[in-house]
Amino acid sequence: MPDFTFEDRLPPLTAGIDEAGRGPWAGPVVAGAAVFLTRDIDAFLLENLNDSKKISAKKREVLYEKLLEARDKGQMLIGIGQASAEEIDRLNILQATFLAMRRAVEKLPQKPAYAIVDGNQKPQNFLCECMTLVKGDARSYSVAAASIAAKVFRDRLMKELAGRYPYYGFEKNAGYGTKAHIDGLAGHGIINGVHRLSYRPIQEFLHRAA
């Protein structure tokens, strides 16, 4: 379970950073940045923060609202950044993820002194000093908060896209390659600006359709 061990060893204004949406065939990649300004945080929030993938969608929504409440009370800072499907195609997914992380930090009301980035790949020429932390969303409260913020924000974006493009199941698959998504591609083709044209499954679909 996460705690404040890493944050307590680092400068006071340390951000946790995580992303959501590197694997899907459609939609943006989204990054979250979270800074706890105090340790006096809602007990339910701290007790339930964890890797967003280990938490049900319903519970993630509850925790996201708790994070926003803590932000509104001045207990923490939250920033969200994203990189579009077109940017993913142009830059590649890793560099687009770093771009989304940079944008998330830029959205914070205060520039952090340090950042803990989930995973083992360190952004180069970042906005502040940073370290990587494998499975950081299960080891650091800040990274776990960023993980949930990024995941819920992106899921909501994909549900909005589902309202505009109802044939791909985005509200359930968040852009991943499920049967509903594949059926949508077969029946309605790709959506320019939404599908990631550089991803092999989309390239293969375009090749078959040509």
How would you sum up this structure, described in words?
This protein is of the alpha/beta class and 210 residues long. It has one domain: Ribonuclease H-like superfamily/Ribonuclease H (Nucleotidyltransferase, domain 5, 2-Layer Sandwich). The protein contains 9 helices and 5 strands. A 5-stranded mixed beta sheet has the order 3-2-1-4-5. Strand 1 and strand 2 (29-36) form a beta hairpin. The model has no long low-confidence stretch (mean pLDDT 96).
Output the number of helix runs. 9
CATH topology: Nucleotidyltransferase, domain 5
| Sheet with most strands: strand arrangement | 3-2-1-4-5
Helix coverage percent: 40-55%
* Number of strand elements: 5
CATH architectural arrangement = 2-Layer Sandwich
Q: Beta-strand level of the residues, as a percent range?
A: 15-25%
Number of domains: 1
CATH homologous superfamily title:
Ribonuclease H-like superfamily/Ribonuclease H
Give a brief rundown of this model.
The chain is 46% helix and 16% strand.
Topology (SSEs and partners):
Blueprint: H1 5-9, E1 14-20, E2 29-36, H2 43-48, H3 57-72, E3 76-83, H4 85-91, H5 93-106, E4 114-118, E5 129-133, H6 141-164, H7 170-173, H8 179-188, H9 200-209
Parallel strand pairs: 1-4, 4-5
Antiparallel strand pairs: 1-2, 2-3
Keywords:
Nucleotidyltransferase, domain 5; alpha/beta; 9 helices
